[in-house]
Amino acid sequence: MTAENVVVTTTTDSEDLARALAAGAIEARLGACAQVVGPVTSVYRWEGAVQTDQEWRVEVKTTARRVEELTAHLLEHHTYDTPEVIATPITGGSPAYLSWLAEETR
To answer: SS3 for the chain, per residue?
Structure first.
């Protein structure tokens, strides 16, 4: 079964940029709702070395049909060379919320 709704997640190195990415996605109707979470500590390998940095996570709720456009939007406005942009299926939830999500992303 393919999920109709997803959460698209990215991270960035500043709260201001995280807020701008969230607002831009919602203003463009690519998502119905976005949360900025952070700061979080990210540990990752980059250019052969383990890095530890403070980041802010942006979680955008959208429909599966908007994921490609949302991904392109996030990549266009992101400052990282290779930003995390992943989509996680929503497999259940409040029917009223999911209906609102679909309506807001039309």
So the answer is: CCCCEEEEEEEECCHHHHHHHHHHHHHCCCCCEEEEEEEEEEEEEECCEEEEEEEEEEEEEEEHHHHHHHHHHHHHHCCCCCCCCEEEEECCCCHHHHHHHHHHCC
Instruction: Decide if 19 contacts 64 (C-beta within 8 A).
Output: no
Whole-prediction pTM: 0.93
Residue type, 96: A
pLDDT tens track for 74-95: 999 999 999 999 999 999 999 9
